[in-house]
Write a structure and sequence with these properties.
about 160 residues; alpha+beta; 4 helices; 4 strands
Length: about 160
């Protein structure tokens, strides 16, 4: 078991494009469906696996391009240390003073380390200035308990 780290930051308006953050339904629309429904399904099916937007379900980071992996760690504490670095780097831009609280951020890092050690995934999101959004995720891999059939994006 190992863990992959993912980071996305960008305009809140883009983050809100939920259709591109959901995996396509496993079955395409039935024959005879409205053409716009079929076209939208095709767009989502083609775009979801290559889009850099954070998926609504953390585990689906594993189907995204390898280039989006920001780091891979064998130990939960190492992955949590990366999270701590990212929080420290971005905290000055957090839109809320409460989110910048050092004790709160330390609790998030400790919680992440504990959860990752059990094989769980972790995902955090923060509003930034301008309005932008920061998404940080740590995903357990090989296998992931939520979707063991998903392959590892980083083959060693």
């Amino acid at each position: 078991m190992h863990h992959h780290g993912y980071l996305w930051t960008g305009p809140k308006q883009r983050f809100d494009q939920e259709a591109l953050r959901r995996p396509p339904h496993p079955e395409p629309p039935p024959a005879g469906s409205r053409p716009e429904l079929i076209q939208r399904y095709r767009e989502v099916a083609a775009e979801f696996p290559v889009c850099d937007l954070p998926p609504l379900e953390t585990v689906y980071w594993l189907v995204k391009p390898r280039s989006l992996v920001r780091g891979t760690w064998g130990e939960a504490k190492e992955a949590a240390a990366w999270l701590e670095e990212q929080l420290a780097r971005h905290a000055p831009r957090f839109a809320s003073d409460a989110e910048r609280d050092i004790a709160r951020l330390a609790r998030l890092v400790n919680s992440a380390a504990e959860h990752l050690a059990t094989g769980a995934d972790m995902s955090y999101g923060f509003y930034l200035d301008r309005p932008s959004y920061l998404s940080l995720a740590l995903v357990t891999c090989s296998p992931n308990s939520a979707a063991p059939e998903l392959p590892c994006p980083v083959r060693e």
